[in-house]
Each structure stands twice: as C-alpha cells, then as structure tokens.
Specification:
Blueprint (H helix, E strand, L loop, with lengths): L1 E4 L10 E4 L16 H19 L4 E2 L2 E2 L1 E4 L4 E4 L2 E3 L4 H22 L2 H5 L2 H17 L2 H9 L4 H26 L5 H10 L4 H21 L1 H7 L2 H4 L10 E4 L1 H4 L11 H4 L9 H4 L20 H13 L6 E4 L1 H6 L3 H6 L4 H23 L3 E7 L6 E2 L5 E11 L5 E8 L5 E2 L4 E4 L4 E10 L7 E11 L6 E10 L2
Antiparallel strand pairs: 1-2, 3-4, 5-6, 6-7, 8-9, 10-12, 11-12, 12-16, 13-15, 13-17, 14-16, 17-18
C-alpha cells in the first residue's frame, strides 16, 4: 500500500512516496456454525482436554500415573519408570510423531491443524467463551465498534477474567506434569509455590491467554512453520477442502425460486458465509491457500445454505485436486491413497514404531554402570592374591524393592570378596563398592577383560551383564 504526500515548501511536482511494509491486521470475527465437521471438532476438543486436564490426577501404584519428575530425574508413564539414560525413547517418539505428521498430511492435508492442534483447540474454547459473554458475530462486531460504556466494560472485563482464569488453570495443569499435582495444588492453596513453579504457571497460562485470545489465526498464518512447508508434502491426490468451481461459477445472488441456469449462474449464491465462519478469514473459493487449516467449517455452512436453496450438497467438500478436475468418485480417490509416497511414509513409520516399542517392551528394568575405583589401584594382598576395587552404580527401574546377587567371571579363580548381595529400594539408584580378587598365578601382568553379572532374586528375567577390566600389576 502506498500514499503520496507533499512536504511544506516542496516544489509542486516533487512527490514523496511512503511504502507500508506491513498490512494492518483486520480482526476476524468467526461466525458460529453447526454440522458434521463442527461436531467432530468439538468431539476432539473434549477428548484432548479430558486427557490433558485429567491425566495428572490419575493415580497408579500409589503415585501419579504420568509424571516427569525432573528434580528426581525419573519419568513415570503408568507402569514404566524411565531415567535420563532412556532418552533414546523420547527421540524415537519424536521421530514417530514427525513421520506420522508427514503421512497424515500426504493423505488428508492439515487435519491435525483443523481438529487437534492445541492452537486450534484453545482458540475454539476461547471463542466459545467470547460468544457466551459477548454474543455471536454481529453482536461482537457491534460491541467493538460502540463507544466505551459501563455495559461494554463489564462484558470485556468478564470475558478477559474468564480467559485469564482458564489460562492459569492450563498453566497449573501443565506444571502438574512435572511436579506432583497434589503437592502443587496444596502449595497453591498455601501460596507457597517455588520460583520456577510460579514462573511456568504464569508463563504457560499467559501464553495460552495470548495465543488463543488475541493472536489466534496469526499463529497459524505467520508463526507456525508447518503452514510454510506443508506444500512440500501435498500433491494432487491429497485430501483438502475444495470448492467446486465448475459447479459454483459464475456466482451471484438469486431468489430461491429462480432457475440458476436461466440466469446464467452457478450454484454459489455468493452469501460469503464460508468466509464468515473461517477461523483464518480466507475465501476458499479462491482455491487452495496455505492459511487454510482444513477445519471444514466452510463445508458445514455451505451445506446448510445448499439445503435452504434446494441445491445438492457438496459445493465445498473434502476432495483432491485430481478428484475435482477429473470428476472421480469417492472410491476412486480412496484408491489413490495407496500411492508410492504414502506407502514409503507408512513403511518407514511402521518399521520405526515397531522397533521403538519392541525395544521398550524388552527393556530390562535394571541398569548397571561399572567404574574402576581410581582411589584404590590394583594391589597384592595376603597369600599373594591380586585385588581390584570397582564401584557399581545399580539403578532399580521397578517400583518394588529388589535384591540383586553379584557374580564375576573372566579369569580363573576370580571372585567377589566383598558383600555380593545388594538391596536396592524402589526406583532407587545405589552405588556400591565391590572388591574382586584373583589367585597370584591367574594370568600374566596387564589388563584382562572380566564380566560382572547382576541378577534379581525376585524376577529371573531381570539380569544384566557389564564388562570391565582386571589389572594385574608387574
């Protein structure tokens, strides 16, 4: 956008051109809509939020079922107890999530964005609160355009108070995944929160308040990188929200009784309701746009309009570019789902998922690190025997006390002369000193490989072997 301005005393013919690099944001007032896809969207809102807000309160074996205890460096996932050494599983989960996003995008576009993305979900919740307080689209527009009054101030204050309270509850729940939520709740009641807990509750709470209450579609259009690189995963067989241009154009208003063919019009009555319900404010009739999050709101409202004017539904629908241009049936488009790109994504995703979960299933809930004690070098003791001292760090990843038997092998006559039975409490990491001796003629001087074996008395499947070396001095 550019404007011409003339400075005082400047010769008439000289012009200064001002160029605005940024377009002023026009606030979007999404209209409420009902229909099949709206019900799906709200169903997923309820599902995702019941999981998010309810999971921290779920108990498992007398403790919180899902807890990422950073202070104790233990991550509890129902019956699993994970440690920082198990970080590889988080990496595998992130890889699976990324590949799943690629796969679902190639098949059905931005359905994640339209139905389950936290930004979409919380924007939907905040819009619902706004509608309950200020009214539907036209009422909200009139309220914003009206001068400040006691009524307007009261409505705005109430809306923002509910938004802030909901955001802080969200921040409290988020922190409850990292601090036991019952303790966190008691600390909030006593007003005895720690500095980091306070920071993250307010940070996450006001991030929710700002993103869902103010930024809304700006996050999807300008801040989210997915909107920018989605085109690399789309092709002409990707299911997207499409407008049937051949059927709808030329668009124009008409009476219900009018024959559109006689007027030279298509089925689109140009009501612009598809634009009014769009959460990002685009006109789907202009074709595929990166701002479209695939929520299907325009489909629901267009179907309502088609029902009212007596035209067939499906002027706006989920379809593919090939399906629209070549007039394919739903069965033909479904067959194109199994194309090479999708099969490659599916194969890689299946292989990595099976590998990660198989590894997790076969994971032994016992970890042992063997470190030679540098404070006590190899030495000769009574009867000429050679002695080495080791420090074993034993990590019990179960939620019951374990008794472990220690043995060692690798050299003739090698044995543990210190206590070979170790008691480790549930989810405890214990460090023990282990003294190992060999006969004087067991091996020549030098470094020799040995192997420690640690086995649980309660569960024969819990057994670990760790290698080390035994030093025989000259």
């Amino acid at each position: 956008m550019s404007t011409n301005t003339q400075k005082a005393g400047q010769p008439a013919g000289d012009e200064e051109i001002e160029i605005s690099l940024y377009a002023a944001r026009q606030k979007i007032y999404p209209r409420s809509v009902s229909g099949l896809f709206s019900r799906w969207r709200w169903g997923l809102v309820w599902l995702t939020q019941l999981v998010f807000y309810g999971l921290p309160w779920l108990e498992w074996n007398g403790r919180q079922a899902v807890l990422f205890d950073l202070e104790a460096r233990r991550f509890y996932l129902f019956q699993l107890v994970l440690y920082p050494q198990d970080f590889i599983y988080l990496t595998g989960l992130l890889v699976i999530s990324a590949l799943a996003l690629f796969l679902f995008t190639a098949v059905a576009g931005r359905l994640w964005c339209g139905y389950a993305c936290p930004q979409t979900v919380y924007t939907e919740i905040y819009l619902w609160i706004e509608r309950q307080v200020e009214g539907d689209r036209s009422a909200r527009m009139r309220l914003d355009q009206s001068p400040l009054s006691l009524r307007k101030f009261g409505k705005k204050w109430l809306k923002h108070a509910i938004w802030v309270a909901f955001g802080l509850w969200t921040g409290f729940t988020f922190v409850g995944y990292f601090t036991p939520i019952h303790e966190l709740g008691a600390a909030v009641i006593r007003w005895d929160l720690g500095p980091w807990q306070t920071f993250w509750i307010f940070f996450y709470g006001f991030a929710t308040y700002g993103n869902a209450g103010f930024l809304r579609e700006q996050v999807c259009k300008y801040m989210c990188p997915y909107a920018r690189f989605q085109s690399a995963m789309f092709d002409k067989d990707t299911m997207i929200v499409t407008y049937d241009q051949a059927r709808g154009e030329p668009r124009g208003p008409r009476s219900r009784k009018a024959d559109p063919s006689a007027l030279g019009l298509g089925d689109c009555v140009d009501c612009t309701l598809c634009v009014q319900v769009c959460p990002t404010g685009i006109d789907i009739r202009n074709g595929l746009q990166y701002e479209c999050i695939g929520c299907g709101a325009c489909i629901d409202v267009c179907d309502e309009v088609m029902d009212k004017v007596g035209y067939p539904r499906g002027l706006i629908k989920y379809s593919t570019q090939n399906g629209m241009t070549q007039g394919w049936s739903a069965a033909q488009m479904i067959r194109r789902v199994f194309r090479p790109r999708v099969l490659v994504y599916s194969g890689i995703l299946l292989a990595i998922t099976v590998a990660v979960f198989t590894s997790l299933w076969l994971r032994t809930p016992l970890k042992v690190d063997v470190i030679r004690d540098r404070g006590a070098l190899a030495r000769m003791v009574e009867m000429g025997r050679i002695e080495n001292v080791y420090r074993l760090q034993i990590m019990n990843a179960t939620e019951r006390e374990q008794v472990y038997d220690l043995t060692v092998a690798g050299l003739p006559g090698i044995e543990i002369v210190s206590d070979a039975v170790v008691h480790v409490r549930p989810t405890e990491v214990r460090s023990v000193a282990v003294t190992v001796q060999v006969p004087p003629d067991a091996a020549p001087s030098g470094s020799h490989p040995i192997e420690f074996q640690i086995a649980s008395r309660q569960d024969a499947s819990i057994r670990v072997s760790e290698k080390s070396v035994f030093i025989i001095p000259r």
